[in-house]
Design goal:
The complex is a heterodimer of chains A (576) and B (201).
Chain A lengths: L6 H8 L5 H8 L3 H10 L2 E4 L7 H7 L5 E5 L19 H10 L5 E5 L5 H10 L5 E5 L2 E4 H10 L5 E5 L2 E3 L18 E3 L8 H9 L6 E3 L6 H10 L5 E3 L2 E2 L8 H12 L6 E3 L3 E2 L8 H4 L4 E3 L8 H9 L6 E5 L3 H11 L5 E5 L13 H10 L5 E6 L4 H10 L5 E6 L14 H10 L5 E3 L6 H10 L5 E5 L5 H10 L5 E5 L5 H5 L10 E5 L5 H10 L3 E6 L17 E6 L12 E4 L1
Parallel strand pairs in A: 1-2, 2-3, 3-4, 4-6, 5-7, 6-8, 8-9, 9-10, 10-12, 11-13, 12-14, 14-15, 15-16, 16-17, 17-18, 18-19, 19-20, 20-21, 21-22
Antiparallel strand pairs in A: 22-24, 23-24, 23-25
Chain B lengths: L13 H4 L16 H8 L10 H14 L20 H16 L5 E6 L6 E4 L6 H12 L5 E3 L3 E3 L3 E7 L4 E3 L5 H7 E8 L1 H8 L1
Helix pairs in contact in B: 2-3
Classes of the chains: A alpha/beta (576), B alpha+beta (201).
């Protein structure tokens, strides 16, 4: 029936289809739909930059305006991937620039970005509006200068947790006086900033809704900035410190008065440095907060933290450090009835036993916050009973990530593995999409995951399982699995080769410190030409003999339409 | 690597005297699990820190025996664990060293020989040695005396000492104040002969 409509009608209908997965599905219906869809697609998501080439992107979607690209494997976040592995954005920007595509938005995650790329980006797309860089590296503030200077209609510059080399170049001052279109600016990951340029920039950008400062912005400056921007919805404070010595009761008084005017703030973060006695200044805005991120606020502890939380009755997302403690989590549970997402980060990484949260805190949260659907919880210990209770209280998890600081710790009460606990979670949360496991775990937990986790898309496994069966349960059972990452677990060749076709239905598989041999990887690569099977061979671990029976330290495989990548460094071998 | 060795049957009952980690009476055989076998059989991987075997074993023994030790053993660091983004990890470690120096209070324990319990003082509050010493005098109702480089503390039977980051006991007052507060872990007021012994050095 749809074939009798002109293309414009189809296009109009497709306008209502926004999720990229739905659009992918639409494009597979028939050649006509494929054609109409590709010309009308504006937003493209590429989860693995090596799955496809820039040229093919440009050919298929000439109308693309917004592009998301992801580079390195997730475990690169934890130093498991060596420097110079890859993930360069340069070829993408060059291809887009050459094709004269009207790019407006670029979002990059775990990619290597150079100053030159940023320069080309800033000059090639007149309507460029939004740059979001998450966990990227390879560039300096010179690159930011280019963006500031050349992107005349820039609305968003969002730098999240990047490694940026800072030059003494006052990049912020490169925004011309004519730049008045900023809506979102986040430079929290930088160490320095030009305060004068910042205040002027804020003053002339009345549409600024999101502003995240760095620790070089002192309290006095924050007060002046808030005076200029009371319309902010999203605020990241920098330094929230009053020195003992100077007489700044005046500053504090002014700050309190200014904050009272900021009635729109709904998201609050920062506090990279804090003098706790200044915190009462923000109590008035706590009532309306829906998102509070104190995960970098190492200076707020114990009772001050709890006092602050008590004011935040409307919180939906809370990110904190484990200073909150189990008792503090009970306060969260009784205060934040609308809580949907909780992340508790560790303050003491090396597990000297001081992590202040345990299963008790989590159970309290689950009891008080039944809407909880997303969890990241670093804790000292966990019990099966607690997980079972959490599963019962909160059946709506879409993300459940548990990290016990001692990675193979059993249930301390029963000394049993945590299989039953995680089993309860996957059985009760039918919409679970992401799961990270930890603690002592046998193959049984994977049996449960394969049986119940029907919507699971991403699974992270560390120090778990007993045999190949575990991995096989997952590969067989989880039909929607897209990303599987495994470290330090006894899964080997039998599991790897059991169902080679499965990997073409997934984005990627990472296995490190497992039992997989070079020979099996070669076999897999041979059988599946549309997979890149990459071996990361650091420190010449594998002798020149290339014995097939040798265990592979790190393997990363992913489906691709463009064959082995040409930018792989020496220590990455792509098997064919 | 813990493995029970059978010295030929139960004749000598050597098992009873065998040294192993575990509560007395607990049988390690069935718990000698896949886990310890797997970890102890792992090839030494360059990515795991040097003390990896003790880490694995201490993990395993914890797994088998629970918190038997009163204090957990110092854990070696496994690469990439806990799984925290490097950015967060780096910024936090920097913050920890800063917090020790600036911002948060710096409470250290103070013990005095013969006193029934210890006290705590916030070194950040005192901007100099005389202030600190005065406070200690008030706290413990005693006189410490005058500091001199040659003779330590003269004029009383007490000498203030501190434990530094290397674990050595040092006389309070030798180094500049800022260096002192960044290196002092705890204080101890020595009394009597010991104190005078210091003064004689």
């Amino acid at each position: 029936m749809m074939n009798y409509f002109p293309d414009e009608v189809l296009e109009h209908v497709f306008d209502f289809v926004t999720s990229h997965r739905d659009r992918n599905a639409v494009s597979l219906v028939c050649k006509l739909w494929f054609r109409v869809e590709r010309f009308s697609r504006q937003r493209v998501f590429i989860g693995n930059c090596y799955a496809i080439s820039p040229e093919r992107l440009v050919t298929r979607f000439p109308g693309v305006k917004a592009l998301t690209l992801k580079g390195k494997p997730h475990f690169a976040d934890f130093n498991l991937v060596p420097q110079d592995w890859g993930g360069y954005v340069q070829p993408w920007i060059e291809a887009l620039a050459r094709s004269r595509i009207g790019l407006e938005e670029l979002r990059l995650k775990r990619m290597v970005v150079s100053d030159e790329s940023l320069d080309v980006l800033s000059r090639s797309f007149t309507n460029f509006k939004s740059l979001v860089l998450v966990s990227c590296e390879g560039f300096t503030t010179d690159g930011l200068s280019a963006i500031a200077a050349n992107c005349r209609f820039l609305r968003e510059l969002d730098l999240q947790e990047n490694e940026i080399e800072e030059k003494k170049n006052h990049w912020l001052g490169c925004f011309p006086d004519s730049c008045t279109s900023l809506v979102s600016l986040n430079f929290a990951c930088l160490k320095e900033i030009n305060l004068v340029a910042l205040e002027k920039l804020v003053a002339r950008n009345p549409n600024l809704k999101s502003l995240k400062l760095n620790r070089a912005v002192p309290l006095e400056a924050l007060q002046r900035i808030l005076m200029r921007a009371p319309q902010l919805v999203d605020l990241g404070t920098g330094s929230f410190v009053l020195d003992h010595d100077s007489d700044d009761s005046e500053t504090y008084r002014k700050l309190k008065a200014t904050i009272l005017k900021c009635r729109s703030i709904r998201n609050l973060s920062g506090f990279l440095e804090v003098t706790p006695r200044c915190l009462p200044a923000i109590y008035p805005i706590c009532f309306n907060l829906t998102y509070l991120n104190l995960s970098y606020a190492a200076g707020i502890h114990g009772s001050e933290l709890i006092k602050l939380i008590r004011f935040c009755g409307k919180l939906q997302r809370l990110w904190i450090l484990d200073y909150i403690g189990d008792k503090g989590l009970e306060v969260v549970a009784s205060t934040c009835k609308d809580l949907q997402e909780l992340r508790v980060f560790p303050s003491d990484f090396f597990g000297a036993g001081h992590a202040a949260v345990t299963e008790t805190g989590l159970v309290a949260i689950s009891t008080g916050c039944p809407k909880l659907n997303s969890l990241l919880y670093f804790c000292q210990q966990m019990t099966n009973a607690a997980l079972i209770a959490v599963a019962k209280n909160c059946p709506n998890f879409i993300r459940f990530r548990l990290c016990i600081l001692d990675p193979t710790k059993p249930d301390p009460v029963t000394m049993q593995p945590l299989d039953e606990g995680f089993g309860a979670i996957v059985q009760s949360s039918k919409r679970l999409r992401r799961l990270s496991l930890s603690g002592l775990l046998t193959d049984r937990v994977f049996l449960y995951i394969g049986m119940y986790a029907e919507q699971l898309e991403m699974l992270s496994i560390a120090f778990a399982g007993e045999s190949d069966k575990g991995m096989v349960y997952v590969l067989n059972g989880c039909k929607k699995l897209r990303k599987l990452e495994i470290r330090d677990s006894p899964f080997g060749d039998m599991a790897l080769l059991r169902d080679v076709g499965k990997y073409e239905t997934m984005r990627s598989l990472w296995m490190s410190s497992c039992e997989v041999t070079l020979g099996a990887c070669k076999t897999l690569a041979e059988k599946m030409p549309r997979l890149n099977v990459e071996i990361i061979n650091e420190n010449d671990q594998m002798e020149f003999g290339h014995e097939d029976s040798e265990k592979v330290e790190k393997m990363y495989l992913y489906r691709t339409l463009v064959g082995p990548r040409k930018d792989a460094p020496e220590f990455v071998w792509t098997l064919v | 690597m813990e493995r029970s060795v059978n010295y030929g049957g139960n004749d000598l009952n050597l098992e009873a005297t065998e040294l192993r980690l575990g509560l007395p009476g607990s049988d390690e055989h069935e718990k000698q699990s896949y886990l310890s076998v797997r970890i102890s059989n792992k090839r030494a991987s360059p990515e795991v820190a040097e003390e990896s075997s003790s880490l694995s074993n201490s993990n395993v023994s914890d797994a088998r025996n629970g918190d038997q030790d009163s204090a957990p053993p110092a854990k070696a660091q496994v690469v990439g664990w806990p799984p925290i983004r490097s950015y967060r990890r780096n910024s936090f470690q920097q913050k920890k060293t800063e917090a020790d120096g600036a911002g948060a209070g710096m409470y250290v324990k103070v013990s005095m020989d013969g006193a029934p319990y210890l006290r705590k003082v916030d070194l950040k509050v005192y901007k100099s040695y005389p202030m600190l010493l005065k406070a200690l005098e008030n706290l413990f109702k005693l006189t410490i005396g005058e500091y001199s480089e040659r003779e330590g503390y003269n004029g009383s039977e007490f000498a203030p000492t501190y434990e530094d980051k290397d674990g050595d006991w040092m006389l309070v007052g030798d180094v500049p104040w800022d260096m002192f507060i960044s290196t002092c872990k705890r204080l101890r007021i020595m009394k009597g002969l010991e104190a005078r012994g210091l003064g004689c050095l």
